[in-house]
Amino acid sequence: xxxxxxxxxxxxxxxxxxxxxxAAIADITNLTGPGLSRTTVDVTSHDSPNAYMEFVGGLKxxxxxxxxxxxxxxxxxxLVDDLDDDEPRNYKxxxxxxxxxxxxxxxxxxxxxxxxxxxxxxxxxxxxKVSGKPxxxxxx
Length: 140
What we know:
The protein is mainly beta. Helix content is 7%, strand content 49%. A seven-stranded antiparallel β-sheet has the order 2-1-7-8-9-6-3. Strands 4-5 form a two-stranded antiparallel sheet. The longest helix has 10 residues, at 73-82. The protein is elongated, with a radius of gyration of 19 Å.
């Protein structure tokens, strides 16, 4: 199977309204995540077969989403405000595949780091901590 070009991926932020509207966080240059993981619970006992440790699945973690953006201070000031918000916000990642597959998740903005090198563009790095289970589905 051939790969899919990542060009055109979008990170969208919900507005929190009852009939929520999602707006793209413009000019994404790199996107990573969500980085799903889970813990394990050690259930080893003196009766474990062949003296091997035994485990069952523990809690799952939606991980983090990291995004690098072309930073526009007047447009992205709302992201800085999100750092003060204690409630997770709705986000979506929309992939550029034929089905427009989406990862939907609630997240807190936990990192916002702008960069202004003297010989390059304004940029910023965002870190979102996923709260709860992200869902993946074909787009509408």
